Amino acid sequence: MTISNFQLDSQLDSPDLTSPALVDLRRYNQSHFDRGRPGWVILLWWLVQAIVFPLTPHSVHAPRIAVLRWFGATIGHGVIIRPTARFTYPWKITIGDYSWIGDDVVLYSLDRIAIGAHCVISQRSYLCTGSHNIDDPAFGLTTAPIQVGNGVWIATDCFVAPGVKIGANTVVGARSNVLKTLPEQSVCWGNPCQFQYRRTIADVTLPVRDPIN
């Protein structure tokens, strides 16, 4: 190891703790933020989610869907929601028919999250509608909605940033970092997530069965 490399490693091991912070978290204020429900409803939801979801069987989705609807979520027919999925504010969430929400998925719904029909959000993916203004010394809260079109598959362990729109029938590869809008019917992956090629699906016509006499 050269002297210069040793000095660089020493600097990385010993971060500068003397430079002043450019943000002052004492000034942080989110009183303007509209959660959409009174505080007691939010606390009740978090309590119910923490108790009801883990107690329901893995493949029995109806109780979880019923609770989400009771708290204001719009959920279509035939939806699958695993017991370890987490929803911050369900009244800001829409999920279309026959979509799947996998294990340990987080829908951080400070803003609206709209998921279309026949979508798959795979395990450990994180849809995040909240962030902070890094140019604001008070580190102000920012939010933007997320929209996921029909037929989308977000594979395992993906991050989807605030304000992102994912076009219909697009596939997002595992562990991708989705920071901007993706076109429809495309296959995308990477950090940051980028278009790779167009998705093609064979048009299969099932034979019509004769009625049983």
Detailed description of the structure:
The relative contact order is 0.10. This protein is of the alpha/beta class. A hairpin with an 8-residue loop joins strand 10 and strand 11. It has a single domain, classed as Hexapeptide repeat proteins (UDP N-Acetylglucosamine Acyltransferase, domain 1). Helix content is 17%, strand content 23%. The longest helix is centred in the N-terminal third of the chain and has 17 residues. The chain is globular and about 60 Å long. The protein has 3 helices and 19 strands. The mean pLDDT is 92. The strands form 4 sheets. A 7-stranded mixed beta sheet has the order 2-5-8-13-16-18-19, with no helix packed on it. GO terms for molecular function: O-acyltransferase activity; structural constituent of carboxysome shell. It comes from Thermocoleostomius sinensis A174. Belongs to the transferase hexapeptide repeat family. This is Hormogonium polysaccharide biosynthesis acetyltransferase HpsU. Keywords: Transferase.
List the helices and strands and how they pair.
Layout lengths: L2 H11 L25 H17 L6 H9 L3 E2 L4 E2 L4 E2 L5 E3 L4 E2 L4 E3 L4 E3 L4 E2 L4 E3 L1 E3 L8 E3 L2 E3 L4 E2 L4 E2 L4 E2 L4 E2 L4 E2 L7 E4 L4 E5 L15
Protein name: Hormogonium polysaccharide biosynthesis acetyltransferase HpsU
Keywords: Transferase
GO molecular function, one term: structural constituent of carboxysome shell
The topology string of helices and strands comes to HHHEEEEEEEEEEEEEEEEEEE
What's the CATH class, please?
Answer: Mainly Beta
**Mean model confidence by pLDDT:** 92
Strand order of the largest sheet: 2-5-8-13-16-18-19
Bulk shape? globular
Radius of gyration: 22 Å
Query: What oligomeric state best describes the polypeptide chains here?
Result: single chain
Tally of DSSP helical segments:
3
Q: Report the portion of residues in β strands.
A: 15-25%
